[in-house]
Design goal:
By secondary structure, the chain is of the alpha+beta class. The protein folds into two domains: 202 residues, no CATH class; 217 residues, no CATH class. Helix content is 49%, strand content 16%. It contains eleven helices and twelve strands. Strands 1, 2, 3, 4, 5, 6, 7, 8, 9, 10, 11 and 12 form a twelve-stranded mixed beta sheet that branches. α6 runs antiparallel to α8 and α8 runs antiparallel to α10. The longest helix has 49 residues. It is elongated. The protein starts with a helix and ends with a helix. 35% of the residues are buried.
Length: 434
Amino acid sequence: MGFFDLVTLIFENLGRRKARVALTAIGVVIGTAAVVVLVSLAIGLQRNATQQLYGIGDLTQIQVYPNYGEYGPGPMAQEPTNQKMITNASLDEIAAIPGVTDVIARDYIMGPAMMRVGRLESYANMVGIDVKDLSVIGLEATEGVVTLEKGTIVIGAMVPMNFYDPKARPGQAMPETPDLMDQQLKLDLIKWDPEGNEIHKKIPVRVVGVIKETRGESDWSVYMSLDEVTAINEWMTGRRINRNKDGYNQLIVQVDSAQNVVDITEQITTLGYQAWTPASFVEGINSFFIVLQVIFGVVGASALLVAAIGIANTMAMAILERTREIGLMKAVGATNRDVLSVFLGEASGIGFIGGLGGVLLGWSAGQIINVLALAYMAGQAAQQGGPPPSVAVYTPVWLPIFALVFATIVGLLSGLYPALRAATLVPVTALKYE
């Protein structure tokens, strides 16, 4: 029997019992739709969670801190153990790790610093960073530039909101948020002498750029060159800073790919430093949602199992009704393989038809759920002040294809036993069957 003859015969047989085939296929439709909807929901939740986590930092960055060690037990323990400072040698040590593209030193001002413009003032989260252009660490400007020169600063998007009038009277209206772009500010540095007297040092700085909002640390930070922060800290402490002894407060390690970040973080930790990356959160979230996808898929597949029993029952009844037909087919030359192929094809056809309907139903239901869920979550995000979600239910291209193939295979396996029974019928016995 040729292939096209076999396909034609299968569709003719299915068409003879439209109502029974439709009722059997409905079970497959429900099971396939359940698989598509539930797995799409898990994937959509994963994508939404991952997108929200992108706000906590660049996933190709690693934050490295000194390991100050631990003090041993007992009163004789004077020095911490396992101490590892970040020195100039550390920069070369970490830069030598395969996959690391850049190692950038950071430092903070070791004392209070006040920014003043006009009658307004604000405490500043001053960050000294060893780069000329902040775009190297993924920061972009909404105004001006993100390049650092001597006597200039680049501010985060929220920094202007911290300014207040120290001489404001009770009940007086809040001052307007100042436009700091291209403004000359006074940086008032404060330290104390041994007698407890305040010593002030005023440094003029000009704002040359405002950083695009990231919903992270940079929104509230003021960036200036590392050399200037080092000079300020030397004034604050009254001594020269030796980086080979005192080290740096922090390093930013840039990695070539987000896929390598967690592995490189572990290597840095093995070297004795403390390291952290936002990618570790994303990896944990992804692992959780992969398990959730499997669980949802198994729940949906359980409905397909029920449908498989229905297909097996339908095919078993079809054999009883067509026993004489099977005997006639064998009498005119059909082989066991031909009979097996016909009945397996019919079972697979039911699975395919049900799978196709289930894919269409599942995709449509997913779109409806997506619209309703996005509307609800957008309202929740507006109340909490967070960014609105972009997706709730997401159906990747591979999922409908997988569901359709899986439903067809379920149909094929369900019809295997009835098909074997049909193929092994003795022609004479089959022809005598009433």
